[in-house]
Design brief:
The chain is of the alpha+beta class. The protein has eleven helices and 40 strands. The two termini are 44 Å apart.
Length: 681
């Protein structure tokens, strides 16, 4: 989809004059002496750590080349069953407040479905006591202002913090938070000024000189009497920013986000605002179970994202390949690479064109190999071609995702790092995929979505594959697990722009065509009859060609290349055959037929001149032999079925190549024989 989130950073750069608020909430007149151990203990007993449960390493399917260096991690972090996210504080017998970005209720992670609050206390014997409680009800939430009010399951509080809306600048204040997740720390500083919210200046943040660290978010900003003035949200340029407690509404359910809708092959985007008030939706209201809230938001967010992307595609429908004037060159061209290519749009002249990916290659045992290349710089998408060993059929890899992924990992190094300076431990296997399903693109090509959950990183690995005679062509992508469905939308769109060519040896083609259920729809009429050292007959929906060993060595390792492309036929866009090459193994002895399309008048001269040469049966379509720069003999003509080229919008050519300087009479006789052997139905 990619709906790129424009985060509303709470610390704006515009500053206003200092001032003070004059209204007290009146919750309590209690004062806490923050200079005393008793006062500090009271604050600590009112604050809690927001955590999520770490994935269980022992249950992970991931196999590594060697043992992970756990011993190099801090022992406390290593032994902790939870990740620390931030701080929350109690404001009544059963209510807590934290920042929405800490509780992260807008993320439906597959790895971290639950949210918890941890209580750390020292008992009467001086022992550390730790209890963890699951979040229960969401009472109020506003992601724009970045706060959430909630309750816990089976937990009430005997200590909580009082709230005060009144504050004075240039006075001493305090914050309490779980600095780096290593325990509650109380820090002091000066309340400096108000800073307007950055987008529209709808409210002011409190800016202070207090130093904050990761984990302080969601904690209280307090005055000298221990009363809460605001909720700590962020740090910028060594200043701490908090939302004034007066901005908290204890019954609202508001979500707002600016979304930039992007598609990786477009050069433009669409900006939109997405917002809702949960209390205004029929049948939905707060309080709400937190898991229900997450599921509700995920559903409504996905629907909004798809609607937004549909509008983006609708906006560009007239100029998205194959539509529009800027598609004509690509429609007339073909992809001659054996490696899959992608249709891209030039950012300058807006013309669609075939990429020229030049993949890296890793050779494996048994003549296997992995070829891979990013679609374009900084792209999330990669094209990967997996060619199995001699004893592996492509269908075996395609139908066994674990085997396919394991084989790919032999050629491409995936590593896990436990800390910044860790050199990484190589991944040998991700185990069985989390989910697999079949998909047919707009051109009837069969793809298989294979996804793995990389639990330690909360990522989904996509390996979307389609079989070819030689191997398996794949689109590779990694996303966060919460974005699984949005990326499925994106990938389905991207697949229509991926051009896969079909090539392989004769024996590989025979095995490939045996799997009818895996073939693209347009391959339904494609047949191959083969007798070694004798003949090979290729049938399509339009014609058939007989190759005999009179001119070609008919063998298992003959190479057959069949190119399907998108082009306009009878006013409709089709994905159909454009080129066939039949070639002796590692030789310049080959037969080629190519479907030429009558060029649109707007196309450049080179296309017009080629068509004129076809109409006039000029070189290289004259039927006269010539010698190329490598000393090989060539001869070509327009197929007799299209003799009067001017009467057609498309014609097929016949082209022969033989190594060395062959007698003209022999080349002419070969061409004549292949005219007879190439029969249109």
């Amino acid at each position: 989809m990619k709906a790129s989130r424009i985060l509303l950073f709470c610390a704006a750069v515009l500053l206003t004059a200092t001032g003070c608020m004059t209204t007290d909430t009146g919750f309590s007149n209690r004062k806490i002496d923050l200079s005393s151990a008793k006062g500090i203990n009271y604050i600590q007993d009112s604050c809690y750590e927001v955590v999520i449960l770490k994935p269980d390493e022992e249950k992970s399917q991931i196999v590594y080349e060697s043992e992970l260096p756990w011993n190099l991690l801090d022992v406390t972090y290593r032994n902790d069953k939870y990740y620390s996210l931030g701080t929350a504080f109690a404001i009544s017998e059963n209510k807590l407040i934290t920042a929405t970005h800490v509780l992260d209720l807008y993320s439906d992670s597959l790895v971290y479905p639950q949210r918890f609050v941890r209580e750390k206390r020292i008992d009467e014997n001086g022992n550390k006591v730790e209890k963890v409680y699951e979040v229960d009800q969401i009472l109020s939430i506003n992601n724009k202002k970045d706060y959430v009010v909630f309750t816990l399951k089976d937990k009430t509080f005997d200590r909580w913090l009082d709230l005060q809306e009144e504050y004075e600048f240039n006075t001493k204040i305090y914050t309490a938070g779980n600095a780096f997740g290593e325990g509650l720390v109380i820090r002091e500083g000066i309340l400096l000024e108000e800073t307007p919210e950055g987008k529209n200046g709808e409210w002011n943040y409190l800016k202070s000189s207090i130093m904050t660290n990761p984990g302080n978010s969601g904690g209280p900003m307090m005055n000298a009497a221990g009363k809460v003035l605001g909720v700590v949200l962020s740090k910028k340029d060594d200043f701490c920013y908090a939302l004034p407690i007066s901005e908290v509404d204890y019954s609202e359910g508001y979500f707002n986000q600016d979304l930039r809708y992007l598609f990786p092959l477009f050069n433009d985007n669409r900006l939109d605002e997405f917002s809702y008030n949960i209390n205004e939706i029929d049948g939905i209201s707060l309080p709400m179970d937190y898991r229900k809230f997450i599921e509700f938001h995920s559903e409504i967010s996905l629907k909004n994202g798809i609607d937004g992307m549909d509008k983006l595609f609708e906006k560009y429908q007239g100029e998205t390949f194959p539509n529009g004037e800027n598609s004509k060159t690509a429609l007339y061209s073909t992809n001659s690479s054996s490696f899959p290519q992608v249709l891209l749009k030039d950012p300058d002249d807006k013309q669609w064109f075939f990429s020229s990916l030049k993949p890296a290659q890793e050779n494996l045992d048994g003549n296997g190999s992995i070829r891979y290349q990013q679609i374009y710089n900084k792209s999330d998408y990669w094209i990967i071609e997996i060619i199995g060993s001699d004893d592996q059929e492509p269908s075996e890899l395609y139908n066994n995702p674990k085997e396919m992924m394991d084989y790919m990992l032999k050629g491409i190094r995936f590593s896990r790092k436990l800390f910044n300076n860790d050199s990484g431990t190589r991944v040998l296997s991700y185990g069985e995929p989390l989910k697999v399903w079949d998909y047919s693109d707009s051109y009837g090509r069969k793809w298989k979505f294979n996804i793995w959950l990389e639990d330690y990183s909360d990522h989904i690995i996509f390996l979307v594959s389609t079989p070819t005679p030689k191997g398996v062509a794949c689109l590779y992508l990694v996303s966060s697990s919460e974005d699984l469905e949005t990326y499925v939308y994106d990938i389905e769109k991207v697949l229509d722009f991926v051009d896969v060519n079909y090539y392989g040896k004769t024996e590989e083609w025979l095995a490939f065509l045996d799997h009818k259920e895996l073939l693209p729809d347009n391959f339904s009429g494609l047949e191959l009859d083969y007798t070694e050292n004798s003949s090979l007959k290729l049938k399509t929906n339009e014609f058939e060609i007989d190759f005999t060993n009179e001119y070609f060595d008919i063998a298992d390792n003959n190479e057959l290349y069949i190119d399907f492309d998108i082009f306009r036929y009878n006013s409709e866009f089709v994905w159909d055959l454009r080129k066939i090459v039949f070639q002796e193994f590692k030789s310049d002895n080959y037969f080629l037929t190519y479907r030429y399309l009558k060029p649109d008048p707007s196309l450049r001269d080179s296309y017009q001149n080629t068509w004129k040469d076809l109409v006039a049966h000029k070189h290289p379509f004259s039927g006269s032999m010539y010698i190329d720069n490598e000393g090989n003999s060539k001869i070509g003509i327009v197929h007799p079925a299209f003799e009067n080229v001017q009467d057609f919008d498309e014609v097929f050519s016949i082209f022969l190549s033989r190594e060395g300087n062959i007698e003209t009479e022999k080349m002419t006789r070969m061409l004549s024989d292949y005219k007879k052997a190439f029969i249109f139905k």
